[in-house]
Hints:
Structural class: alpha+beta
Order of helices and strands: HEHHEHEEEEEEHEHEHEHHEEEEEEH
Low-confidence stretches: 1-48
Helix content: 25-40%
Oligomer: single chain
Number of helices: 10
Number of strands: 17
Shape: elongated
Amino acid sequence: MLWNKTNRFWKISLIAINAMLLLNVSGCSDAPQMKTQIIENKSEVPISPQSNPEEEEKIVKIYRDLYKKFAAEKTWSDLEMIRSIVSRFGEKGYPAVDSRSQVDMVCTEQVIRFCEKVDAKKEDKLTIIEVINLDAFVIYDLQTKDGNVDVVKSYYEYENEDMQKIFTGTYTADDWNYTEDGYLMFSGVCFSEELYVLTLSGAEEHTAFRVQPLDEKCRELNRKYLLPIGYERNNMFLVDWSEEDFGELNFYDLYDIFYPKINEQPVPYVTDDNLGAGAVYRIPEDEFESVIMAYFNIDSETLQSKTTYYSEEAAYEYKQRGFYEAEYPEYPYSEVVGFTENSDGTITLMVHAVFPYAGISKVYAHQVVVRPLEDGGVQYVSNRIIPSENNYAETWHTPRLTKEEWEEVYGGYE
């Protein structure tokens, strides 16, 4: 298929709009990014339910006390702190969960009961606390009536030696789903005074909370082998491949991912300052192969056949992803839901791709086989997509330009 310049242009335009709005709304803070696709202009901010100030102050006090404790001790890891914070809210009777799905939700029975009330079109209220890190958290006040769910989202951050409310957003959920995989997923057009002043508009808001518990070993394997790679700017977990047949696996994208891990610095081969020109590099054979072969059991001949290699120079051609290879900045994340330790020392991981932006708790399932190494490293052995009629397309992914597409875009500039 010929390269479609129009489709890529519109995707890049949406990326640019999203990025500018994020900068305006959240600045340089660690606030969870609001999905800021402009939906509709309004003459005034819609009237929505308000949070409970007294209940909110109780939650803030709990968090304030926890902040003082952890900040003073300075001996806890980030994950230990977050797990302890979530646990403390559970002791106080509040449903709570972390923003990265690395800790089991507490007080899940309240969440499940609320979902049942939504389905039955009865009235109910629920407060969920999302722990971002030691410095930030979000309070979700949910109210349901006649099957509709109203959401009040209050974001707090530690500033000026206290917990400060940074913004409050309100919306009615357009989509609400408690999935078979144990996820609560909801979305809607969120309005906040801060955003409205800038855009006179609302912003798409997508939320996903794992309600059902998950084996801690599964989370550990995910953190170790899957999350460091993810689904962004690579196809490692999007296509079938194995050590016997690497298929359509793109080793240039993987070079971009693995080079900083090995060398503890960014890839030095950057795009041209002139967006109309394409920079082309020749990377010495040893340098390129040392990165790829640290993670794959692959020989030089096979790797050279999967890339552009110049034998007379003993070098690999390399082009950085450019403007026309940008992706829309909303990605799924991996979740290991099961594993098998094989007799040959490898581990087979059963993985779900969770995509909050699309409201899907399983875009598709895939099996990843890894080979842990004695030095603490890992080799990736294979990936296989589990066929299903319910598999969702990888709409976020943009492949690198082919040779023909690259020449069409850059006209031979090097």
